[in-house]
Amino acid sequence: MPSQSIINPLRLMPFAARVPKVTSELNWKDKLGAVKARLAINRHAYMVNAGLYAIGNPNKSSDVFVTSNYKLTFDILRKNLADFNAWMLVLDTKGVNVWCAAGKGTFGTDELVKRINKTFLTDIVSHRKLILPQLGAVGVAAHKVKEQTGFSVSYGPVRAEDIRAYVARGYKVTPTMRKVAFPLLERLKLVPVEIVLSYKYFFAGLLILMGLSGIHPDGYSIVSIAEKWVSVTLNTLVTFLAGTFFSPLLLPYIPFRSFSAKGLVVGLCSAVILLMFNALGGNFVENIAWVFLFGAISSFFAMNFTGASTYTSLSGVLKEMKIAIPIQITLAIVGLVLFTVAQLIN
Amino acid sequence: MRKFVYLKNVVTLQLDKDKCNGCGMCIKVCPHAVFEISNKKVEILQKDACMECGACALNCASEALTVKTGVGCAAGIIEGMLKGTEPTCSCSSAGCC
Ligand code: SF4
Ligand code: SF4
């Protein structure tokens, strides 16, 4: 054990004095930061220092909750530890949330062992128990931590909101606390990030379609772009939202299991609805072109939502992509060719 | 709330029953209630619900479980293919990736 071989210079101070204290209340700055992180602004720089923190007035027998140094996660935990006296052991996950960091291995056995040693946790608490969020199990092997440090790992609930109930039940999780759900609100929270991550594709698609709409029976004309840009932009925007917003929103209610098929359904439905109201804004051939493009674009963006979802497996996504990408490319090419033809017969 | 289940029969999760000692750790760490205990051994109850996160295999001290882990994230896979690296995850969410 390193605490025996290394002399801890802090040992002379009372232990409570050398650990930074945090409150459980979030101020406006924390809240603004959370909104910005959700919108993917400055997301990667949003972290706190790794190490041990005190919440309330913990002593040698207080619980130790382990978390990541992504500030949003850290804030959610301390908020849910209001009026607890406890320790928070924050791992250096490079500002990434527990689940993702565990997948990458930064929230992992090695980092946890290192952090236990670095913070002299064996001196600070007399018990040998750590409470980890259950999703940390993706990166942490409980039996190895025990072997290497003597601390036994208890996996608590998935959501920090359940910690109070978990402690009140004598450190027992219920089956629901263990399950990762994917409720409407959770899906909605992920939409802004999804949009921010995909707007490049949106603008690329828009540029191509704008470029094509300049084609004219007598050559190329800027005037026809000027005439068309409103309807082209609106259509592209609707299909973008079909994939990034409506598909995630309606996820469990759309038929098919694969996300790309769900996106295709939503895309085609939106195209047909717009068609019924004669709102696609082109001639007959162009409207048919839009139906193809709606399918392709919406399917692609919905497929990208697999990453944000909480239940897709790598094997499943690979299988889905093998089928979906050729279909999306075919739809897109047919759509673009028809779109071009439509401009020529205008 | 409706249940979310992804594609059928694609998951790589495997259990070696001879090695299982029935400790129940896999049940504790699985976020999708894939396992069930019966007769002091664990059983795979709903394989299609597995998202291949790897928590069970990593925390099974008797090494009874194997699963090819990775992120089920199309954008990450595309990025990996373009850059010629492993599928990476841009970690946009509160869940994974
Ligand atoms: S963790 Fe391993 S040994 Fe324990 S019940 Fe699960 S499969 Fe069996
Ligand atoms: S890999 Fe993850 S989701 Fe699949 S059974 Fe294991 S713990 Fe459950």
Explained architecture:
The complex is a heterodimer of chains A (346) and B (97). By secondary structure, chain A is an alpha/beta fold. Helix content of chain A is 55%, strand content 9%. Chain A folds into two domains: 170 residues, Rossmann fold, CATH 3.40.50.11600; 161 residues, no CATH class. Chain B has a single domain, classed as Alpha-Beta Plaits. The C terminus of chain B is likely disordered. In chain B, a hairpin with a 2-residue loop joins strand 2 and strand 3. In chain B, the strands form two sheets. In chain B, strands 1-4 form a two-stranded antiparallel ribbon. In chain B, strands 2-3 form a two-stranded antiparallel sheet. By secondary structure, chain B is α+β, with helices and mostly antiparallel strands. Classes of the chains: A alpha/beta (346), B alpha+beta (97). The structure holds iron/sulfur cluster (2 copies). One iron/sulfur cluster (SF4) binds next to helix 1 of chain B.
Helices, strands, pairings?
The complex is a heterodimer of chains A (346) and B (97).
Chain A: H1 2-5, E1 21-22, H2 28-38, E2 51-55, E3 64-68, H3 71-80, E4 86-91, H4 98-104, H5 109-118, H6 121-124, E5 129-132, H7 142-149, E6 152-155, H8 163-168, H9 175-178, H10 184-212, E7 215-216, E8 219-220, H11 222-250, H12 259-276, H13 284-304, H14 314-344
Parallel strand pairs in A: 1-2, 3-4, 5-6
Antiparallel strand pairs in A: 2-4, 7-8
Helix pairs in contact in A: 5-7, 10-11, 11-12, 11-13, 12-13, 13-14
Chain B: E1 14-15, H1 25-29, E2 35-38, E3 41-44, H2 55-59, E4 65-66, H3 74-83
Antiparallel strand pairs in B: 1-4, 2-3
